[in-house]
Amino acid sequence: MAQACSREPLVGLFPDQVSGIPVGAKGGRLRFLQGVFWGLEDRLGTPIAKYVFHYADGTVRERLLVRGQDVQNWAAAPPPPGDGNPVVGWSSGWKYTSFGRQSATLCVVT
Q1: Considering only CA atoms, which of 42, 30, 37, 43 is closest in space to residue 108?
Q2: Residue 8 lies in a domain
Q3: In the chain, fewer beta carbons within 10 Å around the N or the C end?
Q4: Is residue 10 in a domain?
Q5: What is the largest CA-CA distance in the chain?
Q6: Is 46 within a domain?
Q7: What integer pLDDT is reported at residue 63 of this predicted model?
């Protein structure tokens, strides 16, 4: 698990980027399970983060993460399935907590 942060009030608690995670294997596809904390400030359709891939042959590729398309706030209700919505990879379902009724959702990006 890797956690990064570039927004108040969590700046300083986590790094603003995570780098140097070796994959060390040949494959056709990587999948990431992710959520965003404090992600409601950005409008839907806004790029909020990116993955940067460095391949053994020196090629570098970037994959932008777009709010509302690839990822959503982790505490938001799971989005309905369909074109343009994040794909839910895991959801806790609705639970009652000391903060009221909450759900935790992580989305999958390929």
Answers
A1: 30
A2: no
A3: N
A4: no
A5: 51
A6: yes
A7: 92
Give the C-alpha separation, 92 to 110, whole Å: 21
Q: Does residue 61 contact residue 54 with C-beta atoms inside 8 Å? A: no
The pTM (predicted TM-score) of the whole model is 0.73
Residue range of the domain that includes 42: 32-109
Number of domains in the chain: 1
How many residues appear in the chain?
A: 110
What is the bridge-based pairing of β-strands 95-97 and 100-102?
Answer: antiparallel
Q: For the chain, first and last CA: distance in Å?
A: 16
Q: Which tokens belong to 10?
A: 């969590």
Examine residue 18 and state whether it is found in any structural domain, yes or no.
Answer: no
Distance (Å, rounded) from C-alpha 61 to C-alpha 30?
13
Q: Quote the radius of gyration of the chain (alpha carbons, Å).
A: 15
Judged by DSSP in three states, 109 sits in strand
The Cβ of residue 63 has, within 10 Å, a number of other Cβ atoms equal to 14
pLDDT tens, residue by residue, 39-86: 667 788 888 888 998 888 999 999 998 888 888 877 777 777 777 788
